[in-house]
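quick one, 285 residues, struct below
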Amino acid sequence: MNILIDGLATGMLLFLLSVGLSVTLGLMNFVNLAHCAFAMFGGYVCVALLRHVGLPWVAALLLAVAASALLGGVLERLLYRRLYRASHLDQVLMTIGLAFVAVASATYLYGDQQQSLPLPPALDARWSFAGAHFSAYRVLLIVLGLLVAAALHALVAHTRFGARLRAAVDNPRAARGLGIDVDRVFTLSFMLGSALAGLGGALGIPMLGLSPEYPLQYIVYVLIVVAMGGSGSIAGSLFGSLLLGLADAAGQYYLPQLAAFVIYAVMVITLVLRPQGLFGRLSSR
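---
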């Protein structure tokens, strides 16, 4: 039970961090290696609002998500949009440069020390069930991850915006001819991915910590989730994240000296058996 609860919580946190990149990479065909910089930004905004402004935890979390979305929208308009039709190598070089800029900026503003984020008493409560000991915080991660997955699926598959996004991805010229504002659709999609990254970054501080190295430290795990699940697949990101979370928790309990190796072993086995990812990759532009 401990492995199950810890694994599900870790998996859902990985899902929140990675699903935004899955959207931008799979649906917009853009390789954004600065994705975790938006997660770090959301984390630092949440810490600043809690410590220096004194806002309640929920308000600080929501404002951190909104700030990440706003930053994503601004950068999409100023920088990312210029490289939509560029090669993936150009996109990688630009976004990894942005990640290094984010690392340097965070180091200048906050120093290189880890940031802590005390949880509110309600989330710090601990429960016991069937021999397992877990906190309300982990339950929140599991429930919130499921809600986000369901909401994203409904948004992409059953709303007018989702239909416009799919049309803009499949054939931008035809979509423009039908009156769809493709640029606006992509901006909103990028803001959504940035907001989800900010949510994961702010929520994950008690488990993952927060330091200036965050964008480079966790982008590898995010890319593993996207590769395993299939870029653009929300269900794939969810199940890939849960698989990695459970494997990591089991490794921590049973093979602590090889725990870091377990995730990579699971990734290799999955991609050997399913090179296209668990749920395949959606079509892109």
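Residues 3 and 249 are 6 Å apart (CA to CA).
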